[in-house]
Amino acid sequence: MSDSPRFPPRLALVISIVAVSTASILIRWTVAPPIIIAAYRMVLSTLILSPFFLANEGIEKLRGVGTRTLLGLMGVGIVLAVHFASWITSLSLTSVASSVIFVHIDPVFVAVISHFMLKERINSRVLAGIVTALLGATIIAIGDAGLGEMNLYGDALALVGGVMLGIYILGGRFFRKNLDLTTYVTPVYATAALFLVVSAIVMGEPFTGYSLRDYGLFLAIAVVPMIFGHTVYNWALKYIEAPIVSISLLGEPVGASILAILFLDEVPTSSVLFGGIVTLAGILICAYRRE
Known about the structure:
- The protein is an all-alpha fold.
- The protein has one domain.
- The chain has 14 helices and no strands.
- The longest helix has 27 residues.
- The N and C termini lie close together (about 10 Å).
- The mean pLDDT is about 90.
């Protein structure tokens, strides 16, 4: 454990999981193209964090980290941008339940990448978790394939988002060792915002002409799932035991699926329910670490 925080970390973790679970619903309520939603999410999040970054002498701190670290932060930002672009697009093609389950299969990719890149060898328990998660994902994919080709394409995009999320988490583990929260997340968010804005321009997607409701939803997506979700979650991880962190990983798929039933009248199919339970069990096995 680290120095005593001013706010209860476990309560912060609960708040962050509830907040990030709203992302799928808020995104579904907008009519803008996925790349525009992703761009507004990151641009507004960066603007919200900028005063805290400047007050924390973030510019001076970044000047002292070296070119390699700056390039690394930019790389993490691009990975985050690809994560959001692929996952938000998947939500327009497949069910909320399938999308959030596939995108949160990231502990599997973290385990595999760590095995080859960080020499953190996969033991029999983690291997069992990987096999279980992939079996559950296969059950979901087979069921979605029966609903149409676009559903399967959405699952694939969510899976790409999961790979990117795994790389993003590994990057955070590395850079957060030496950088405080705002000094880390602000340049990462800013890079993601720039990448998404340029991508939207290249794709010819408009940034204006949306309803006042959509602009309000853009702001809500930035404030609720991004600031109170992702950013608060990153803060809480510094103070919370590994087993609790592992269990919390199951929060968004479960929470988002429940919200989709309540607000979108989107009930998961039997294959998604069964496959989701199997996948989440595998994810938990992969993510769990004894202290």
